[in-house]
Amino acid sequence: MQSVMGRSPDVDHLIGGECVATGARFDVKDKFTGETVARVALAEREHVDRAVDAAAETMRRGGIEPYRRSEILKDAADCLARRKSEIVEIMIAETGFTRADCQGEFTRTLETLRLSGEEAKRICGEVVPLDGAPGQGGRLGMTVRVPVGVVAAITPFNSPLNTVAHKVAPALAAGNAVVLKPAEQTPLCSVKLAEALMEAGLPAGWLNVVHGAGQVGSYLTDNQKVRYYTFTGSTEVGTIIQRAAGLRRTQMELGNISGTIICEDANIAVAIPRCITTSFRKAGEVCTSLQRIYVQRALYDQFLELFVQGTVALRVGDPRAEDTEVGPMISEEEAVRAESWVAEARQEGAAVLTGGKRVNSVLWPTVLTNVTKRMKVLNQEIFAPVVCVLPYDRFEDAIDAINDTPYGLSAGLFTSDLSKALLAARTVDTGGVHVNHTSSCRQDLMPYGGMKNSGFGREGPRYAIRDMTDEKLVTFTPA
Ligand code: ADP
Prior knowledge:
The protein is an alpha/beta fold. It is built from 15 helices and 25 strands. A 7-stranded mixed beta sheet has the order 15-18-19-14-13-21-22, with helices on both faces.
């Protein structure tokens, strides 16, 4: 099998099926130990342009038939599965996520690849009833879905394998060639995905990988041969990419200040463990991580007591230890930033019920009360293991509070009252509303994406393929 990894531990670009080294390199660090685990080639504009040219030329030479795309994607899942232990270790090193978090992401990636493989065979248009218009008898019309063109995928650090698969696999399933720029903090898992796809028989040029930070991403957005951008990351960078994309289409999965409502009729034996897991999983660095929990006042004290009890019991520290539940954040700088937001909130009157402590890049799971909208911990996305718990009186007030942010990715609600569930389903302005689950509730076949400043377009192979194809109309007229 061809390896994208060059001289170990150096990692090169993948352009037109070739490993391409560049003079400049950047280090990828182990996020817990700080050791350098790889030295990765840093792309210049020239390399990005070559990668886009390779993708465009590959598409121009002719496509891969859908049944074969399907086989390749499903086989890639099998190739990846055979290398599970190696890839999980790489993911732990480059992200700092716990072993359980990495195993969970790994398993989901297999599902994403297999779903994309299945959907590759089901891309179809529809018959257009042209003879429904006067004088059109004998005419026939149909739509076909055609690949949109070269897809650029720009991905974040917090899901270095599955989010990459959610961009690359549907793009390939749809018949597009791809140029991927993974996050500079976590490029190694995406290299492993590329290797699995090549081992499964993906011909050269269909997936190209270039490495670097925002500057390299901007070379991609400058290149007019790219027809589609699929992006997950901050609202700030999403806005920059959208501006550069102009009339070209995009899929934007951006930030959120995720919230969940706990009604007094909720089953808290179910709600509390779900809230704890989804507040602190991946050290809170998930777009849908719980940051705000609104609890009906009658249940507030009981919920808080049990929630804090469960949080205090979490095992924190070395992500490689089997029993660790919360590991380090992506960098010490990020942990210091989140810690400072907590300190600022405390100064302004918030109570820190547990957490707030930091050692290097590890921030202990933190629960805050007495928070107000003036505080950053409530009015900005913290992307850290920090959660605010607030009481509410009327259900409508809780819905208003959930909606009172510029974002709209996902929200949760625990209740046994069907009318409250229906009201939330109708009035919560988020791309997903999850009854008896939290904001962080995703299966890979779901349509996943946001409203408002959380973006638009949908991940989930079936939905992403719809986005990454154009609808073409063909008509037949009797001569
Ligand atoms: P996060 O907040 O999750 O770190 P960012 O939005 O900063 O997310 O980055 C997400 C991805 O976007 C990364 O791959 C990053 O390198 C890339 N990126 C950052 N700035 C730009 C830019 N100006 N143009 C294109 N891509 C960018």
